[in-house]
């Protein structure tokens, strides 16, 4: 009985951790989320020559680093017109950005627009950031 009770208690306490963000990391929310998306928005809008919003796949913060993966879209949620842009043709239509905390804001360190491969695969080594920042 004591073992069963201990096991049940351990399962109840540890089960929520299975779905939590990795240790020391969290999903960006509030002002951090807005500032991170704004830092990515400027270069993406310039490259696409259009104002954009993002359909966010994920934004993770680990310490002073953040990674965002999102799909640009027209304001209000409409699909972008890709013809004549760097994303024309057979590409992913994703935007990825690596940010570093800069005081109260976030500075864009590197980004990839419509990559044909996982451009950020070498960013952990190149920028000395935790791999877990990029993990799904």
Quickly describe the structure:
The chain has 136 residues and is an alpha+beta fold.
Task: Explain what you see.
It is a single chain. By secondary structure, the protein is α+β, with helices and mostly antiparallel strands. It contains 3 helices and 5 strands. Strands 1-2-3-4-5 form a 5-stranded antiparallel beta sheet, covered by helices on one side. Strand 4 (95-102) and strand 5 (105-113) form a beta hairpin.
What is this structure's SSE topology?
Layout: H1 2-14, E1 25-27, H2 30-48, E2 53-62, E3 65-73, E4 95-102, E5 105-113, H3 123-127
Antiparallel strand pairs: 1-2, 2-3, 3-4, 4-5
| Count, helices | 3
> Could you list the spans in which at least 5 consecutive residues all have pLDDT below 50?
4-21
Question: How are strands sequenced across the largest beta sheet?
Answer: 1-2-3-4-5
Coarse shape: globular
Topology, number of strands: 5
Stated plainly, the CATH topology is called: Nuclear Transport Factor 2, Chain: A
How do the helices and strands follow one another from N- to C-terminus?
HEHEEEEH
Approximate strand percentage: 25-35%
Q: Biggest sheet: strands, sense, closure?
A: 5 strands, antiparallel
Number of domains: 1
* CATH architectural designation: Roll
Summarize model confidence as the mean pLDDT.
85
